[in-house]
Give the backbone structure.
Amino acid sequence: MAWTLCYSFLWVFYPKGGLSTEHVFMQFYGTRTILTLLVLGMAVFIGYRVVDHMQTRSQETTSVTLEEQQGADAWIHGFTYRQTRSGSTKWVVNADQAKVFDKEHVAKLETVQVRLFDSAFQKEQLRITSEEGVMNTSNNDFELVSKNEKTVITFESGFQVFSDKLTWNEQARQIYTTDPVTIKGDGLIITGTGLEGDVDKNEFHLLKNVRAEVVSP
């Protein structure tokens, strides 16, 4: 909303003889006082409008948040989901926000990071970052999707895999996608369509349309 401040000027005509010095001084002093009061009044008015605008925006933000939460059984900021076996960590999912739907056994995640550990569950093997994710809290499968940036797998060796979507199968401990994939690392850029990866065996392969390019250092 735009606000326009309007000023009113008063023109005063005096007799030809003019005013005495005392009258001029009193007139100047009175004018300065009026201007000071006007400035203070404007400052109070602007301050009130700023506070009112901030309160309105705060109410709008709150109402949007409540609307987004409708239907979810839980809305969690700073979400962490850890999968363990015999006390050892198999993988960890972190998200900035999560909406949990108990009946559907689904957690919808925003700004996601996944850390997968090796077959001995002792050492972090790879890390995945993604804009969004959907986890099945019943079987622990999850799908990671990025609409603006890519979903990225970063391996301990430094290789990185880029794709729009990646799916994790908990029972098989495998990662796969049918989308286009780019792999970068060690002076190579490899592109293809579709990816299957066995985390425990540390084996990953592209399914089709594979091309490789050597990049100069």
